[in-house]
Each structure stands twice: as structure tokens, then as C-alpha cells.
């Protein structure tokens, strides 16, 4: 026991005795090495698990992206050259669209500026007139300003007045033959000497201004065709009294004209002049293709007229459109050209150089009487010194003027339908008892098929010419002549024809030809008229 105790004490003495410093450092380094080795082994064991998880997550994200791309039908941007080319093309188109939008905006801004300047100039002119109007207490009959044809409401709204002979479309007088080639410009210049300006006076007062076309030239005698408004009394279907007509040529020559014939139904009159000046004549064309909308052809046209003051040539371009005119005359066709009131009566020319119409005026459109109607009018007058047309009592309208929806339905129900539809039947006409009804479609007369109201009018003019040629005395009409013309109308889808016995010709007052009434401002100085300006309240 004593020995063991001694051993224990000796062991305890050995353990408790201090160790050298070098041995302590070596032991610590060895311990750290063992710790790092253990951590490295543990990390090596965990690394495959972590890499497997990362790979799994990466594959999951890639599959998700592919699913999204598949859902939206997208392609990888990185290597897809087609997509990059498409994006570049889209960017170019977008840039072009922005440029076009910018140009349109600039053009609209410029147009609005022109309109504002036009309105400001007009208002300044009117304000000057208003400032010249004397007060009632200071009225001086020798130095005064008179306003003619203006009612009270018009006088109150003087800021709404516009120059009477200006075009409704700003910039028309700066129009060139845009889009036309040099050949068309040469054709216009060739026709220009045949276009004249006309002015009528009643007493000393101006009555009407318009343009016209020289259709016949025989040595020093020349015949001009224009609108009958030139000679018509404003309130009746009669020629104005104390009428004087002046004609202005392209070379600034002037001569006096004489009325030789007028027709208020077609609104056509013939003026004859005596002048040593050689004038180029230009006849109207018998071509009807441009107004036959069942045929494929060019409908580009040019209007020609002469300015009121300096009588220069004025032109405007446009197209013939399938639209019914707002005026009464069934024979009128409409073009998109915009003309001033002074260009009324001037010719309408196609791009082949043919005169295919004579222009009239409306605020929102430019109606024209087709050239082959004018041609038949001139031919009948040349033969019989008058023009007649049987009065059947029907008011009709061309089918294509019904509008797209109605015309489409007609084409579906009646394949290839052409002709006219009856809008109204006069109560006292022979057509009332013939069995014809409003809404019926007529496509032939006396076995001759037609496609529009214009062609129907040409057939009726031919019937009138045959009647005059069959008279005992050629073209001689008097009270003893009992007219009885049978006209057979054929209905669409019906072989049987409806016969009408016509006993009279169309009257001058059947068609109305309204024309804006001018507001005339006259200034007198020392009892003499110093100036005269014309205005209108058209929008």
C-alpha cells in the first residue's frame, strides 16, 4: 500500500511538473492539423451533395425558362439571327412611322396656320368695312358704304363673311398638276386657249361670273357653252332683263357676247361672239367610260377655269366618284375637285385630253354635267335650233348612288344589277297609271339597256331628236302639234315592259340650280362708286 501510494504520488508529480515550451507548440500545431484534416474530410463528403443540389436547381430553372419561352412562343435572343433581323426591321418601320407622323403633324400645323391667316385677313378686311360704315347721325349720301343682299342676321354676323369668289379649299389657287405627268400638263395647256371667262351685268350692276368653253369657231363667229346661271333671273325661270355679257380671252382681249339659246333644265346656255381674234375650239367627248362604274378605267380628272379678276387659268385635280349629287338634276355626276364660283361652267378634262364634263358648284362637292349630254345638247340645237326632252314624270337615281350597303344588297339579290331606281312619280304624270311603282328598278327603255341616270337622259334626248325630225316641218313646234310619244320602260327581272304615252316636254322649272347669293359691299366717294366687294356666309 505504501508503494502504491508512493507511485501515485510520483505519477502525480510527473503530470504536474511543467512541460517544455517547444513541446507545447508542437502539440498545438498537431491538434490544429488534425482539426483542419477533419474539416477537409467533412467538406469533401458534403461537396457532392451540395453540387448535386446546385445542378438540380440550375436544371429546374432552365426547364422553367424553356417552358415560359414555349408558352409565349419566344426564341433565344442570343443566337437567333432571324429574331434580331426582325427586331431591326421593326425598329426601322417604327422610325419611318414616326417620321411620317411628324410630317403629317407639320403639314396640319401649316394648314391651320394658313386658315388662321386667311381668317385674320378676311376679318381685317371686314373690320375696315365696318369702320367705314357711318353712324346714323353722320350719314352722308355722297360718301357712304352700302351693303346689298344682306339681311339683319347676316349684318350682325359679319365676322362669318368670306370672300365670295374664294375656293372652299385653302390653297386651291396654288394647285399644280400634282401626280400628273408632263403629257397631261401639255394637254391642259393645249385646251387652255379654249377656256374663257364671262361676266353678266343687269344694267350697271354685276350679275354673275363664270367660265366657259369655245365649242365652235367659224371665221369671226365663235360659240361658247357655259351655265345658264349667267343669264337667269335670280327669282324666276326667265332670262334677266337689260342683260349685258362680257367675254374675256386668254390673251386679255375682251368682247361683248350675245345669248343665242338657253335651257334651264340642263342649266346650259350658248353665247355667241364676234371677234377677229383666232380662238381654238374644243369639242366635248362622247366617251362615257369614266362615269360607267362597271368598267375599269382611269377616273383622274382636271378642272379648268379662269380667274374673275385677272382671267388667268385656274386648275384643280381630283377623281370622279360614284356619288349622287345633292342638286335636283339626275344627270349630274360628282368629282372630288374643289373649284371657286368663278370656275363654274368651265370644262372637266380627263388625263387623255378629252372634255368629259362641264362643272357646276356646290359647297361640299363639285357636280358636273357629263360631256356626252352636252354634246347631244349641241347636236340637237345645231339641227333644230332647240332642245327637247320628253317628260315621263319619274324622278330616278342611279343604283350605285344608293350607298355601299344598299348597293351590295342589290348586287347579292340581283347579280350584276344596273339601271336606276324610281324615287318618286309625279301625281299628274302619265307614269302614274302605267303600273310603275316607287322602288322599281328600270334597266332599259324601248329595248335599249342602260346603267345609270346619265345614260337614260341621253336616250331621252335621242327620242326628242327623233320626234323633232319626224315633224311635218323639220323642228317646227306650234300649238297644232299634238305630241304623243310612247316610251316603254323595262323593269329588272321582268320581261314585260311598262308603256307610257308622253304628251309634253320637260319644263325649264323642273330642276333647281341654287347658287349662293352674294353679299355686296359698295363704297361711294363724292357720289360715285369707288369700290365693290363680294362676300358670302358659306362655311
UniProtKB/TrEMBL annotation:
Domain PDZ, chain residue ranges per copy: 419-456
Superkingdom of the organism of origin: Eukaryota
GO molecular function, one term: serine-type endopeptidase activity
Region (Disordered): 1-26
Biological-process GO terms, alphabetical: proteolysis
A Pfam match: Trypsin_2
Biased composition, class Basic and acidic residues, residue ranges: 1-14
Family: Belongs to the peptidase S1C family.
This protein's name: PDZ domain-containing protein
Lineage, uppermost ranks: Eukaryota, Viridiplantae, Streptophyta, Embryophyta, Tracheophyta
